[in-house]
Amino acid sequence: MTLTNRDIVELTAWRRKLHQQPEISNEEEKTASEVIGFLANTRPDKVLSGLGGHGVAAIYESGQAGPTVMFRSELDALPIHELSGVEHSSLVPGKSHMCGHDGHTAILAALGRQLGRERPARGRVVLMFQPAEETGNGAAGVVADPRFGEIAPDYAFSLHNLPGVPFGEVRVKAGVVNCASRGMRIVLEGKTAHSSMPETGVSPMIAVSQLMPALPALGRGTFADDDFSMVTVTHALMGEAVFGIAPGQAQVWATLRTRRDDRMAELIAAAEALATKIAGEHYLSVRCDYHEIFVASVNAPDAVRHLEQALDEEGVARGEEDLPMRASEDFGLFGHSAASAMFFLGAGERHPALHNPDYDFPDDLIPIGSRIFMRTARNLLG
User: Fold this and answer.
1) Of the residues 250, 278, 294, the one at which a domain ends
2) 99 annotated ligand binder
3) Predicted confidence band of residue 61 (pLDDT cuts 50, 70, 90)
4) Does 355 appear as a known binding residue?
5) Model pTM greater than 0.85?
6) CB 3.0–4.6 Å: which of 25, 88, 225, 254 could bond 135 by disulfide?
7) Together in a domain, 156 and 49
8) Is the same domain home to 336 and 273?
């Protein structure tokens, strides 16, 4: 169940190759091809490609009856210009692996190497390399793909590296670990006018000025509360960038965030009612649409028990501090059809934060993450 020194060297070099060639959400075609090529000599029994976009599933069969255990990583990078200064920095301007998905992918590839040498005693293992995690449509696309029925996992596991946590320590717990969230775009329509005669138009200016503080005021509770909700205004746009036209159109963008999926429905209704009310008061039409939709990520107690057993057997320190998180993760969707759990693997207390331009995945996490996954697989499947 251990990687050789040569494995670690090759996996590290491959991770850095992926790091140099980042592809953002829904554009991961070359990254998917890299995964398929790297796993070829592990002889998976079946490979499904193009899942939900550019997703790849490598399936390792035992030939014996038993559960299907899925391990998931992400393929996509971020639209961030890298400033880490490492030798293997991104070669693509404005795009980089500032969330560590290249490292998560290398951990799953390490698992593939081990499964290539020794299949599970029963059941099967699926390595799911998922696209478009950052935009929230990746897991949804994979689950909606008719071929996902060929996988139908009984258990689903994932990890995410976490700066701020001591290196190699794990944070895991049952219940909610990541919030539900979605981007809400409010579009207000009035009527433009010459800037010398603004009274002849219908301007959204006052409506925007009212919406921007009123939307965050919809949030309630502290993050410790199960009913917690939060609204963050992220962007506003009004009229044209000229001096001669009084504006007739505007947009307000906000992120809605809750700990529970049912609370999200209530928050959406409240935000739409607020937008409709304010728009009506100023004789504006209004429409709302939604983007980057993430359901709450909820760890199943049974799946967590299997992870905790593996962590204890591998001598990996664990705790529940820092959980749940306000941030979202689209792994939660897999939990709607499987017993699922995600854990968070410490990248170091002083390591640059995720999504920062100076971040780089710590390569020494590759053997640690793969050990945890492999022990989990062996305990479930023998």
Assistant:
1) 294
2) yes
3) very high
4) yes
5) yes
6) 25
7) yes
8) no
